[in-house]
Amino acid sequence: MNKEALILAEISGGGFRSGEEISSKLGITRSAVWKHIAKLRQCGYMIEARPHEGYKLVSKPDKLLPVEITPRLETRTVGRRIVHFDSVDSTTRAARDLIDAGAAEGTVVIAESQTAGRGRLGKNWITRSGSAIAISVILYPDLPPSGMSVLSLATATAAARAIRKTTGIEPNLKWPNDIYFRGGKLGGVLVEISAELDRVRWVIDSIGINVNDDFRGTELEGEAISLREATGERVQRLDLLLALLGELDRLWKVMGDDRSMDRYRDEFEALDMLQGCEVSISMPGGSITGRAEGIDREGRLVVRSADGSISSVFSGEATLAP
Ligand code: BTN
User: Fold this and answer.
1) 173 lines ligand 1 (CB under 6 A)
2) Which of 11, 64, 128, 162 could form a disulfide with 243 if both were Cys (CB 3.0 to 4.6 A apart)?
3) DSSP-assigned letter for residue 153
4) Ligand 1 pocket residue status of 208, Cβ below 6 Å
């Protein structure tokens, strides 16, 4: 654990803790303690300092800081390194720079706000300061590019699990990457890859979840929904993030043993909002209409057309037919 996390633990008990006690417990000088306290203050922690008494934590910022995450993280790979931005154009874009700089597998990029967040199919993704979860995870899988649709669906299922565990609500999933609740979009998954014909070089597995946003009176009212709007109370972003990183770590382990959708399929289908519905799927080469009949083990959407023929769709945008 890093020194700032250890100092936070020392001064979080409600009373004052002297610089001398902290320095001898952590084996660092008192001036090093002071420097770490100054750094924590820069991050938004309010720390009272009194001569002869020491330091006391007064309040914490509502941020997803590594110093809060790392001590509570129980993952093997995901979250090995955490890069936090108060504001960045897009965590997906920032992850790309980190890959070029040799970032390790499991590196997680987190932003409090994004100025040019990206959604699927060239759409924008808005992340306002401190209200959402916007993360990207860097992975180097030993998978063919065709395995990536499984990763996208399994990630959405893992995110739904984390939401259920943290808030008790049961979201719906819409193939291939959307998380919904009562008809409003709660979040989404974006998987970007670099690949040769038969081998993936890197993957950036990104997730956005609307947590404490208030969409009333905005251009997204009626279209988007947040967990706060769904549950009627503020949700602790840190708890949700920890649950999410735990689920992604488990998912990553599963993908190492079994590259199919087998271990996520039943759960995906139980949450699948297209199941049994008439849908229209637009794809680069055209569109098809029919009844959605779940997904296959490769994560393709199974669609039965009016003439009874079955198609398995690899990627596209699904809308419910009127
Ligand atoms: C979608 O539903 O279209 C996908 C949305 C993905 C949004 C996330 S937020 C974190 C990461 N950074 C981005 O710029 N986009 C993804």
Assistant:
1) no
2) 162
3) H
4) yes
pLDDT in tens, 288-321: 999 999 999 888 999 999 999 999 998 889 998 7
Quick check: CB of 118 below 6 Å from ligand 1? Answer: yes
| Residue of 148, 160, 190 whose CA lies nearest to 270 | 160
Pairwise CA distance, residues 159 & 180, whole Å? 11
320 vs 233: CA distance, rounded Å? 30
Cβ–ligand 1 contact at 61 (below 6 Å)? no
Which pLDDT tens digit goes with each residue over 201-217? Answer: 999 999 999 999 999 99
- Mapped onto helix, strand or coil, the DSSP state of residue 294 is strand
Find tokens 């393709």 and name the residue: 300
Q: How far apart are CA 113 and CA 87, in angstroms?
A: 5
What ligand 1 atom has the least distance to the C-alpha of 89? 14
Q: How many angstroms separate the CA atoms of 272 and 21, rounded?
A: 55
> The pTM is what?
0.92
